[in-house]
Amino acid sequence: MTPPKFIPLASYHEYPVEEMRRRAIAFREEIQCRRTVRYFSNRPVPREIIEDCLLAAGSAPSGANLQPWHFVVVSDPTLKRQIREAAEKQEIATFV
Asked: pLDDT tens per residue, the chain (96 residues)?
């Protein structure tokens, strides 16, 4: 078996300990401010923002770099309602 050819991460930059600490604290503060959202605005999100978020999500690491996820953008209100109703039924079946 031929060993895999690894490509070095050329963009890697190791920060000084003080900078890593500052970044870790800033990240923790951001995480501590997050909240669960149960009520959403009805304002549409610009497609460019959705696409940027999907690009970020698609670059997340996965086991063996398989990236087994699929993303779907749904803008049709009727289809969104049907998906929500199906998800709620599944949630009830799972947690009851």
From this structure: 888 888 888 888 899 999 999 999 999 999 999 888 888 898 999 999 999 999 999 888 888 888 888 999 999 999 999 999 999 999 999 887
Phi, psi of 60 (to 5 degrees): -65, 145
Both tokens of 56, joined, read 């970020």
What does the alpha-carbon distance between residue 71 and residue 8 come to, in Å, rounded to a whole number? 29
Which residue, chain included where needed, has tokens 């549409």?
Answer: 44
**Type of residue found at 52:** D
Is pTM beyond 0.70 here? Answer: no
Q: Do the Cβ atoms of 75 and 46 come closer than 8 Å?
A: no
The full set of domain ranges for the chain reads 17-59+69-95
3-state secondary structure of 82: helix
